[in-house]
From TrEMBL, chain A:
Organism: Elaphomyces granulatus
Residues at which Zn(2+) binds: 329, 331, 334, 360
Name of the featured protein: Queuine tRNA-ribosyltransferase accessory subunit 2
Intracellular or extracellular location(s): Cytoplasm
Purpose of the protein: Non-catalytic subunit of the queuine tRNA-ribosyltransferase (TGT) that catalyzes the base-exchange of a guanine (G) residue with queuine (Q) at position 34 (anticodon wobble position) in tRNAs with GU(N) anticodons (tRNA-Asp, -Asn, -His and -Tyr), resulting in the hypermodified nucleoside queuosine (7-(((4,5-cis-dihydroxy-2-cyclopenten-1-yl)amino)methyl)-7-deazaguanosine).
UniProt keyword list: Cytoplasm, Metal-binding, tRNA processing, Zinc
UniProtKB/TrEMBL annotation, chain B:
Subunit structure: Heterodimer of a catalytic subunit and an accessory subunit.
Organism the protein comes from: Elaphomyces granulatus
GO cellular component term of the entry, any: cytosol
Chief site of localization: cytoplasm
Role this protein plays: Catalytic subunit of the queuine tRNA-ribosyltransferase (TGT) that catalyzes the base-exchange of a guanine (G) residue with queuine (Q) at position 34 (anticodon wobble position) in tRNAs with GU(N) anticodons (tRNA-Asp, -Asn, -His and -Tyr), resulting in the hypermodified nucleoside queuosine (7-(((4,5-cis-dihydroxy-2-cyclopenten-1-yl)amino)methyl)-7-deazaguanosine). Catalysis occurs through a double-displacement mechanism. The nucleophile active site attacks the C1' of nucleotide 34 to detach the guanine base from the RNA, forming a covalent enzyme-RNA intermediate.
Localisation per UniProt entry: Cytoplasm
Broad EC category: transferase
Keyword tRNA processing found: yes
HAMAP family given in the database record: Q_tRNA_Tgt
Pfam family, one: TGT
EC code(s) of this entry: 2.4.2.64
Name of this protein: Queuine tRNA-ribosyltransferase catalytic subunit 1
Catalytic activity: guanosine(34) in tRNA + queuine = queuosine(34) in tRNA + guanine
């Protein structure tokens, strides 16, 4: 197992309180925590090509889902597994053309995961690839980790997406997760004989979204027998942060709970989260929303939690507005472009809108985390959190315009009880809408071929 | 009729460009004729551009997801915006308030706009051309509308593009109706005069005329002479891209080369010549030999969205399963940022990665767009270098052999067109 170093700098490691730290993996940029992992889709940060990411963002750590790469496995060997790499290289990194110094965290599923109709089993979990639902065997996941060599692997957990689980089911969740973790760590680092055949990926063990008492045995084992193989914890709900046993309190904690607001991020940080995944950043960009919040806002008299957390750039009131998205923002989008352009790009359905918003929204989050770290060090985090709650609205603004096409694997976590984001009628409508938009984009241009028109759904060839 | 107005009575037209002709193909011992290829530099309000040039089409003030910096990084110094689109969104009022298209899209290099007429006529099936202008139904609510030469110029004045185009009466080049063709040609001359009169900023925007006349060489000749007399800063040859249904897959390209040849033969040597809506790499290589300087086409960017990569031996569809585990660059040895290895400051993008993203993530399209536009721009660089070094005929031969694999597979229209300017592709 590769040497990792995680130092909690402030305060003492075992205290469940906001903490700053530094996560160091040889060869990667050190990550100052609390920090966030940028979410990827099929290995790419949506709308950001590698050069844009390098030139206009500070993105230094990514979360990648294996389910985005293993379409028809095991029947067909996924292209990712066929890629050749030197012993010190990561095929995952090479395949996704990502730079050497970026930290790659791999989990089995996207964040948030899409509900799968088939339940998990004792040896496999249910996943969704771009060609449909299928099973991922625990053994195959371990094999994948060996092959693709991420920096950090999030261990398999038996989770129930979008449903309340009964007592029996909960027991099973713990037993299975315990078994997955034991097998995986044993196979990756245990009796492998030669030290060089050890996996280079470090293991983040899941903590289940259950009460302490329900997973006591498992948690104890993590702190005991499994301790030497574990480099971090992956938690699925904020309250799990409070049940981490002392023995493993110094391990970095990654949250995969999908906070919906910066308030929820602050809550996770207040409970000692170190690395956080934030789906709403990309969702805001897709929705045409420019995030607009800082930590900690100056507390004014009579604050009433009324400041919006973002600006809906679809609004026509910005059509001729030459000011930056957010006054004083130093991101590429705000220093080089203006609201009028973003509004135009959104309304013209030009893809650059999403790129420019992603750059700004990631920058907003960067500044937010940097200020949070400073406040923890200065001992002013709690005041800041309070000021934040008193200043900003409790939820992000409603999206009014249409975003990019959402595909099946983009859908949000949902249970069978709630309407699935891509219910069939929605999907059809969506499909029709996209075809219409594509057709529209063809209308005013000169030399589109009949084939292209046909592909776009604009017309069929008359034969 | 306006076309018969004396030159002296016409408004004197200032120019906002200078044109430096640097090199032409010269006669060699082996050839009797010489190609008409020329290399030059065009100095425009937003910087100098090398000719021959390919202009990528940033239809709605954005090139398929690329930032202006990415576009500049690929080497673009002059791109196209479409007047019809910008007139609809964001609209003239906003363009005026924002201060034009350069300001809107954060692009400090040059922009060329079309008149907007072509798109209405060719795509809005209900468009109807009268002496006043183009009548059409609003694509939004069906309201009858009219685009006049004055309105087109006014819109382009608001856009602030460095090169603006006259409104012309466009009909399909291959239209068999000679009377209609003649009428369109003559009307285009009258509209040019109206455009010249309406043009508010000739000292900072260059108005180009558009030569019409279909495939009728007499009409083209007449139009060339009349329009050259108007002394616009640049000259376009129109009516080429509209009618031809170019087949994306067989790539049956049909540039009416004799017509291009005729026009360029009659045009003044000291002005840039722009062939609108052309084209494919082979169209460009042939048209340069016939004396054209400027080209635009949506094909490289549009085809990228369908997963097609342009390569020296034709296009490759990277959505095809054979590329799923092809870990080579899009094009071996390509110097674009995507294909260059990471060690050389590139991104090290592979075909397998494009396949993985194609049609699923916008990043895949953005990367392929960068490669494709770079391909066209670097093709233009090689063309220009070949002309400057007086080896264009050899370049042309090499280009077509590589594209088609062997001389015998080169389409006959290419062979014939190039024969006319002293290049025999079939010669050993
Ligand atoms: Zn910004
Ligand atoms: Zn390339």
């Amino acid at each position: 197992m590769r040497n990792t170093m995680f130092n909690v700098l402030h305060p003492a490691p075992a205290v469940f309180a906001p903490r700053v730290g530094m996560f160091v993996l040889p060869g990667r940029k050190p990550v100052h925590t609390p920090h966030y992992l940028s979410l990827t889709s099929r290995g790419a940060v949506p709308h950001l090509t590698q050069d844009v990411m390098r030139d206009y963002t500070s993105i230094d750590s990514l979360y990648i889902a294996l389910e985005d790469f293993i379409e028809k496995a095991p029947d067909d060997v996924p292209p990712l597994y066929k890629m050749q790499a030197e012993a010190h290289e990561s095929t995952l990194r090479k395949f996704t053309c990502l730079p050497e110094d970026i930290l790659l965290v791999m989990g089995p599923r996207r964040v948030p995961p899409v509900f799968t109709p088939m339940p998990n089993t004792g040896t496999a979990i249910s996943i969704l690839t771009s060609v449909g639902f299928r099973k991922l065997e625990a053994e195959d996941y371990i094999e994948a980790v060996r092959k693709v060599r991420p920096d950090i692997v999030v261990g398999l957990a038996d989770l129930v997406v979008g449903l309340q689980s009964g007592i029996k089911r909960r027991e099973k969740m713990v037993d299975r997760t315990h078994a997955y973790t034991r097998d995986a760590t044993k196979q990756l680092y245990g009796d492998v004989g030669e030290p060089e055949s050890e996996s280079s990926a470090v293991y983040f063990a899941p903590v289940l979204p259950l009460e302490n008492t329900q997973q006591m045995l498992y948690l104890d084992d993590l702190g005991d027998e499994l301790r030497e193989h574990i480099s971090g914890l992956a938690v699925y709900e904020a309250s799990s942060l409070a049940i981490v046993p002392d023995k493993i309190g110094c391990l970095p904690r990654l949250t995969l709970s999908g906070p919906k607001t910066p308030h929820e991020i602050l809550r996770e940080i207040s409970l000692g989260a170190d690395l956080i995944t934030i789906p709403f950043v990309g969702m805001a960009s897709d929705g045409g929303i420019a995030l607009d919040f800082i930590f900690a806002p100056p507390l004014e008299d009579g604050s009433s939690a009324s400041k919006p957390l973002g600006i809906d750039m679809w609004s026509p009131i910005y059509a001729a507005d030459l000011s930056p998205l957010v006054q004083g923002c130093e991101c590429y989008t705000c220093t080089k472009h203006h609201r009028a352009y973003i509004q135009h790009l959104l309304s013209a359905k030009e893809m650059l809108a999403w790129t420019l918003l992603q750059i700004h929204n990631h920058h907003t989050i960067d500044c937010f985390f940097a200020a949070v770290r400073d406040s923890i060090e200065a001992g002013t985090f709690t005041e800041g959190f309070l000021a934040f709650e008193q200043t900003y609205q409790p939820s992000l603004p409603q999206q009014t315009g249409q975003g990019p096409r959402r595909r099946g694997y983009h859908a949000q976590a949902s249970g069978p009880g709630e309407p699935k984001l891509n219910s069939s009628s929605y999907d059809q409508l969506d499909d029709a809408a996209e075809k219409y938009a594509e057709a529209q984009s063809f209308v005013p241009t000169p030399d589109v071929s009949a084939e292209e028109l046909q592909i776009s759904g604009f017309a069929v060839k008359d034969t | 009729m306006a076309a018969k107005m004396s030159v002296a009575a016409r408004k004197q037209m200032p120019s906002a460009l200078t044109f430096d002709l640097l090199a032409k193909c010269s006669q060699t011992l082996l050839t009797v004729q010489v190609t008409k290829a020329r290399a030059s530099t065009l100095h425009l309000p937003h910087g100098s551009v090398p000719l021959p040039i390919f202009m990528p089409v940033a239809t709605q003030a954005s090139l398929k997801g690329l930032t202006p910096e990415q576009l500049a990084q690929i080497g673009c110094k002059l791109c196209l915006n479409n007047t019809y689109h910008l007139g609809l969104k964001p609209g003239q009022a906003v363009l005026e308030q924002v201060g034009g298209a350069h300001r809107l899209q954060g692009w400090d290099k040059n922009i060329l706009t079309d008149s907007g007429g072509f798109q209405m006529v060719s795509l809005l099936k209900l468009a109807n051309v009268t002496e006043e202008g183009v009548r059409f139904l609003s694509p939004h609510d069906g309201t009858p509308m009219l685009l006049t030469p004055e309105h087109s110029i006014s819109l382009q004045n608001s856009i602030g593009s460095d090169i603006i185009m006259q409104l012309d009466d466009v009909i399909v080049t291959t239209s068999p109706d000679r009377e209609r063709m003649k009428q369109a040609m003559e009307r285009s001359i009258r509209w040019l005069d109206r455009c010249i009169d309406a043009h508010k900023y000739p000292e900072r925007q260059n108005l180009f005329c558009i030569i019409q006349g279909g495939l009728d060489l007499d009409l083209r000749r007449k139009c060339s002479v009349e329009m050259a007399a108007r002394d616009t800063p640049g000259i376009a040859i129109g009516g080429l891209s509209g009618g031809e249904a170019k087949d994306e897959f067989c790539k049956v390209s049909v540039i009416p080369t004799s017509m291009v040849d005729t026009c360029t033969g009659l045009l003044p040597e000291n002005k840039p010549r722009y062939i609108m809506g052309v084209g494919y790499p082979e169209d460009i290589v042939v048209s340069v030999a016939l004396g054209a300087d400027m080209f635009d086409c949506v094909w490289p960017t549009r085809t990228a969205r369908f997963g097609n990569a342009i390569t020296p031996s034709g296009t490759v569809n990277l959505r095809h399963a054979t590329y799923a585990d092809d870990f080579s660059p899009i094009v071996d040895g390509c110097t674009c940022i995507c294909c260059r290895p990471i060690q050389q400051g590139g991104l090290g993008i592979t075909r397998a990665y494009i396949y993985h993203l194609a049609a699923k993530e916008t990043v895949g399209a953005h990367l392929l767009t960068m490669h494709n536009v770079h391909y066209l721009l670097s093709l233009m660089d090689s063309i220009r270098a070949a002309i400057l070094e007086d080896r264009y005929p050899a370049f042309v031969r090499d280009f077509f052999n590589r594209l088609y694999g062997s001389a015998s597979k080169i389409p006959i229209w290419v062979v014939n067109a190039l024969n006319g300017v002293g290049i025999d592709l079939l010669a050993e």
